[in-house]
Amino acid sequence: MEEKIRIGVSFCLLGSKVRYDGGHQHDHFITDTLGKYLDFVSVCPEVECGLPVPRETMRLVGDPENPGLVTFKSNIDYTERMLSWAAQRVRELEQEGLHGFIFKSKSPSCGMERVKVYPDGGKSMIRTGIGMFARAFMEHFPLLPVEDDSRLHDIQLRENFIERIFVYKRWRNLLKTGKSLRGLVDFHVAHKLLIMAHSQGHYRILGRIVAHAGQGAMTNVFAGYEKTLMEALKRKSTARRNADVLFHMLGFFKKQLSAFEKEEMVEIIEQYRKELIPLIVPVTLFRHYIRKFGISYLEGQFYTNPYPLELKLRNHA
């Protein structure tokens, strides 16, 4: 994919000194590795809504579902300022064509989960909050893939997020060509195995949407497909689900592989299912056989190549 994927990101993660203490939280995986494939749109809620650097630390207080934002020591209330700015900023971000967002974890403005909330404004706290800007963003863009920097250290969550943004990019590229039945069918066929690895239930629902697409308005059909697709991909793929997909792929080689080669593939898939070897091992062997025998259906599947190989996301057992 030559065109970079446009992603929003908390500014401090790019190395900008905008944090309350005048520092940053530069994440080199984001800038140096993902930066080869992503185009970043930076956002710093606290600075953009008019607060200085450095500044007094802030916290969420009150109702965890609808908290206020106040400074930690002087108790200055910035709730209305932040809410007003966030509402305007998410509308502006509509014009940026974002395909996802990476938030700064634990931040009272940017944290997407488990942010500290002080229900009574005192010392007792619970970790159930969502940063004010993060909440506004996720409510405004409910289908966009989002993650925070700390969760990206989990290899499964990292792979899931990156896979979602690449799929979403391809989906948005499809929308640019127009909402045609042919385009929807082609997209669905190319992503079948990828979807199956996340959720068989959602895969069946998506199949029914495509099968009956000609009976409804295409705008509604595409909206329903997109919603179900992103819900499916949000579910983490597992070794068991991937193994099911790999065995399904093996069925395409009934006549091409020898008995020994089939036995070898079964053994490798089982080793992967038991998490003794990484997914890249059976996938690489399948890619070899797909090219060797020219299995056109599998050649068109994004499952074997969902994102750049250089990211090495399938190299871990």
Could you describe the 3D structure shown?
- This protein is of the alpha/beta class and 317 residues long.
- Helices cover 46% and strands 11% of the residues.
- The chain contains twelve helices and eight strands.
- It has helices spanning 28-33, 45-48, 79-93, 132-140, 155-176, 181-196, 200-211, 218-234, 239-250, 259-273, 280-293, 296-299; strands at 5-10, 38-43, 58-61, 68-71, 101-103, 115-118, 126-129, 146-148.
- The strands form two sheets. Strands 2-1-5-8 form a four-stranded parallel β-sheet, covered by helices on one side.
- Strand 1 (5-10), helix 1 and strand 2 (38-43) form a beta-alpha-beta unit.
- Helix 7 (200-211) runs antiparallel to helix 8 (218-234) and helix 9 (239-250) packs antiparallel against helix 10 (259-273).
- The longest helix is centred in the middle third of the chain and has 22 residues, at 155-176.
- The protein starts with a strand and ends in an 18-residue tail after the last helix.
